[in-house]
Specification:
This protein is globular. By secondary structure, it is mostly helical. Helices cover about 75% and strands about 0% of the residues. Helix 2 packs parallel to helix 6 and helix 4 runs antiparallel to helix 5. About 50% of the residues are buried. The protein starts with 9 loop residues before the first helix and ends with a helix.
């Protein structure tokens, strides 16, 4: 229970509010998209890559901060919640300050997006504006995405297809089936992170009116969804190898398969409780590892 959490310093409270363990979920798709473009074109526009990486990081930080304050104001972070303590709900940070922090992060990302739109044209402007809107709408508005069964689909689209495809487009000013497939593979892992989060909070979410996929389908079906999200990326590796024109180097991401199978076993046997916090962190870490291994495979 969160009411036992020790009071952190002001810096520690902000650090917890931005949820650093989730930031890699936003970073690695951008890395993969640029690496794929580099592998196919033989060159890389480094300033564009670095600005895109920073913009993605800021959008994720803004989304996390907005989620922190929005869930508190909607009563979705009750004392019996099993997840890590939230800065606003615990009273460590004023709601107004957290909301300002979210808007500052979104504003900085928007300004970086102007440079990216100048480089990539209207497709990048559209992806950037949609990403900013989605970051707010995830827990904002009259019907937040996080309060519906669409959370996993949202993450698959924005942390997979849009992030990888958009990053690839920034470098080559074109899109390819290879980039979209790689984006879908990485997006499935990102969706798995949301599935763990929603499985952990299923009971408290149900009580406050959140209709996540885990609430709607129940524990057993959620376990099957998690299994599909974790295993499909590995099953799609031969198809990606064929599209990318790569050989045995594309087997490198299979090094992440044993820990994925271990996480599946632990998810299936886990009782409702804080054990899901560790599963969430390990699932996010696995997405990062898979993305890095896949990036290395593309340039090997």
């Amino acid at each position: 229970m969160n009411d036992c959490a020790a009071q952190p310093s002001a810096f520690g409270a902000w650090w917890l509010a931005i949820r650093p363990k989730t930031l890699t979920v936003a970073v690695v798709p951008v890395v993969l998209g640029h690496v794929l473009a580099w592998a196919q074109a033989g060159s890389l526009h480094w300033p564009v890559a670095l600005v895109a990486l920073l913009a993605a990081l800021l959008i994720q930080i803004g989304t996390n901060l907005h989620n922190d304050v929005a869930d508190f104001e909607r009563g979705a972070d009750p004392p019996e919640r099993l997840g890590p303590p939230r800065a606003t709900a615990m009273g460590w940070l004023p709601a107004a300050a957290v909301r300002r922090g979210a808007w500052v992060a979104f504003a900085l990302a928007f300004n970086l997006g102007i440079y990216l739109a100048y480089q990539g044209g209207w497709p990048i402007a559209a992806i950037g504006l949609a990403s900013l809107l989605a970051g707010w709408a995830y827990t904002g508005g009259s019907r937040p995405i996080a309060y519906t069964p669409l959370g996993e689909l949202f993450v698959l689209l924005f942390f997979g297809l849009a992030a990888v495809g958009g990053s690839y487009y920034l470098q080559n000013l074109s899109i390819s089936p290879t980039a979209l497939l790689a984006g879908a593979m990485l997006g499935l892992f990102a969706a798995a992170v949301i599935t763990v989060n929603n499985a952990r909070d299923r009971e408290t979410d149900s009580r406050v009116g959140k209709r996540t996929l885990a609430v709607v389908l129940g524990r057993r079906a959620t376990a099957w969804i998690y299994g599909a999200e974790m295993l499909l990326p590995f099953a799609l590796l031969p198809w990606l190898a064929a599209l990318a024109g790569r050989g045995w180097s594309m087997a490198l991401p299979l090094l992440a398969l044993p820990p994925a199978l271990l996480l599946l076993k632990r998810f299936g046997g886990a009782l409702a409780g804080p054990v899901f916090n560790e599963l969430l962190a390990r699932t996010a870490r696995l997405q990062f590892i898979f993305g890095i291994l896949l990036s290395l495979a593309l340039v090997a």
